[in-house]
């Protein structure tokens, strides 16, 4: 009987170990700092003036979270503009804070679809990532174009919906629906940040992530500020 019990215990232990190993393997659908490139498209003054589906201050905060996240985690990032000097104007300060033009030259275009611009396309594909994350203005034009084009070329495409905006709620929502039907994956700015952090024991980025959230994360940021001050950790 004892050998039988030992055998059962051993089998159970192996099963538990196997289950644990499997449980610790994250889905390949999840983003991490090294498996994707981020493209920030036309977060510019003139493009922001007409946005109606989201309050401009919320759009700016969400854009800061995305740009800050990519900077903290050293994600390969491309910043594009459209007619920056002649029409659309400067990028949001929340982009320039993390990606100043002096260090990260922006790629200016005339095409509405970044994928059709030689320089923008080269900058994106040269990052060598099969996952591409997009955010920008406007959703129905400057995001739909590269999202569907990259998808058609075999890339795994994600769109950060709340760091993108459009001239109406309907325009934004129809654009997201169109992309989702084509297999593009919608995510949000905070989801993007936390998916990269993934584990609060990741001490090398903990302080930077929580500082970013305290500055731009609204109620969640206030909660972190409270916890740090009152609980002293």
Provide keyphrases for this structure.
2 domains; alpha/beta; single chain; 6 strands; 6-stranded parallel beta sheet; Rossmann fold; 233 residues; globular
Provide structural commentary.
- The protein has 233 residues and is α/β, with parallel strands linked by helices.
- It has 2 domains: 160 residues, Rossmann fold (3-Layer(aba) Sandwich); 33 residues, no CATH class.
- It is built from 11 helices and 6 strands.
- It has a 6-stranded parallel sheet, with helices on both faces.
- Strand 5, helix 8 and strand 6 form a beta-alpha-beta unit.
- Helix 3 runs parallel beside helix 9, helix 3 runs antiparallel to helix 10 and helix 7 packs parallel to helix 8.
- The termini are far apart.
- About 8% of the residues have low confidence.
Summarize the structure.
This protein is of the alpha/beta class and 233 residues long. The chain contains eleven helices and six strands. Helices cover 54% and strands 12% of the residues.
């Amino acid at each position: 009987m004892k050998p039988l019990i030992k055998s059962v215990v051993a089998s159970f232990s192996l099963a538990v170990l196997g289950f644990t190993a499997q449980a610790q393997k994250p889905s390949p659908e999840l983003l991490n700092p090294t498996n994707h490139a981020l493209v920030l498209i036309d977060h510019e003054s003139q493009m922001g003036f007409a946005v109606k589906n989201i309050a401009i201050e919320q759009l700016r905060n969400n854009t800061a979270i995305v740009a800050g996240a990519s900077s903290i985690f050293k994600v390969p990032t491309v910043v594009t503009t459209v007619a920056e000097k002649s029409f659309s104007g400067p990028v949001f300060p929340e982009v320039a804070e993390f990606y100043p033009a002096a260090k990260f030259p922006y790629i200016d275009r005339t095409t509405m679809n970044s994928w059709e611009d030689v320089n923008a396309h080269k900058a994106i594909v040269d990052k060598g990532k099969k996952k591409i994350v997009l955010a920008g203005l406007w959703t129905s034009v400057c995001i739909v174009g590269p999202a569907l084009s990259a998808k058609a070329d075999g890339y795994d495409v994600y769109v950060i919906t709340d760091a993108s905006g459009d001239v109406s709620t309907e325009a934004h929502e129809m654009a997201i629906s169109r992309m989702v039907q084509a297999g593009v994956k919608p995510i949000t700015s905070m989801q993007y940040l936390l998916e990269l952090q993934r584990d609060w024991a990741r001490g090398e980025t903990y302080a930077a992530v929580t500082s970013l959230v305290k500055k731009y994360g609204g109620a969640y940021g206030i909660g972190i500020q409270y916890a740090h001050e009152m609980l002293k950790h």
